[in-house]
Amino acid sequence: MSTPRKVLVVGGGAAGNTVTILLRRAGVEVDLVEAKDDWNATAGSGITLQGNALRVLRELGVWEDVKASGFAFG
Fold it and tell me: CA-to-CA distance for 56 and 9, rounded, in angstroms?
């Protein structure tokens, strides 16, 4: 099986963004699309992230941006 040259990822949620980052790191050209024009305006509302998700965000290199945009609680 040959390696795809270009991939279309549909859905700008956590999974769509994650797979886009990982595919681009692997050298695959990726287009990411989201059906909602304002999807970013409500993204992250009411989400609690567990330790394993935080490790993935660090690995993806986006943890500092997520941390700056979020609200920590104890």
Answer: 19
pTM for this model (two decimals)? 0.67
Q: What single-letter DSSP state applies at residue 1?
A: -
What's 5-71 look like in SS3? CEEEEECCCHHHHHHHHHHHHCCCEEEEECCCCCHHHHCCCCCCCCHHHHHHHHHHCCHHHHHHHCC
**pLDDT tens-digit series, residues 8-36:** 999 988 889 999 999 999 999 999 999 88
Instruction: Give the Cα separation of 33 and 40 in Å (integer).
Output: 12
CA angle 22–26–43, rounded 5-degree value: 20
